[in-house]
What we know:
Elements: H1 2-23, E1 33-38, H2 41-57, E2 62-68, H3 70-78, E3 84-88, H4 89-96, H5 107-122, E4 124-133, E5 136-141, H6 142-148, H7 153-156, E6 164-168, H8 178-185, E7 191-195, H9 200-205, E8 211-216, H10 221-224, E9 227-229, E10 241-247, H11 248-253, H12 256-261, H13 270-281, H14 287-297
Parallel strand pairs: 1-2, 6-7, 6-8
Antiparallel strand pairs: 3-10, 4-10, 5-8, 5-9
Amino acid sequence: MKITKRLLMLLLCLSFIVVVFSACNRGRNDYDLIVVGRTFAEGQIMAEVMAMLIENQTDLRVGVIQDLTATIAFEAVALGEAQIMTMYTGTAVVAHLGEDVLPGTPFEETFERARDGLLEEFDIVVFERSLYNNTFALGVSREFAEANNVWTYSDLIPFTPNMIFVGEHAFFDRPDGFHGMSEAYGFEFADYTMVDVGLKYAAFEQGRMGKALIVFSTDSQIVTFDVVVLEDDRGFFPAYYGHVAVRRDTLEQFPELETILSVLAGIITSEEMTRFNYLVDSGQINVQQAAALLISEFGL
């Protein structure tokens, strides 16, 4: 069963890559390396950043394939049809290694499991983290935070009996979701509203002074709707930091990649990534321009 599933995924990856390259009149052999990106701005920006860094410092030809789901992007790298991607700590453990990450698990433990597990099972090397953490986070309106001096989850506790919580349906079914979060912090929201993920911010906007909502901590809408992301001061939500991930045989073939791509470790905060996402999602600049801007701003 597992072999059949991996074979089907390989065929799907191959078919997708052929279609992408055919559309741009290029072949897989036109590139030395393939970087895969995701369906959202952040994942696309970082794919272009990695490709640009490599091409700026080597003679390697780098292709970028965007708009892949987490599963297809990972399988493309795991099966050797691509070589480089952005890996999220929690996704590596939960989705790719099939293990649980309990609420409150320290980042260091999650990272060690991701790093060791992906290397052992898939020959993928996971680099040290960047500073953006695309995990669940609790947000409130800026006017509410400033008026009530609320900056952490614990600060919010006494206000929850008079507030409505807004979140997507899936958040209410997770162990690290609404009920687990409420129990961990002692939240007693007056009511909650479950909506489709695409309608979440619009639902929050109506009566925003009396609402809290769940966000992904690098959502571009945080800027659009002027949401304050509160500090998870008890470390409830698992870590979903961004990491460069490269096939081990690729690093053995091109050892210079480790030095080139390691510069992304320890930089780009969640707030900074949110700004880049907003610039792309709002149509002010495209993905390639955002990648070039990030490289310029950080002096990479």
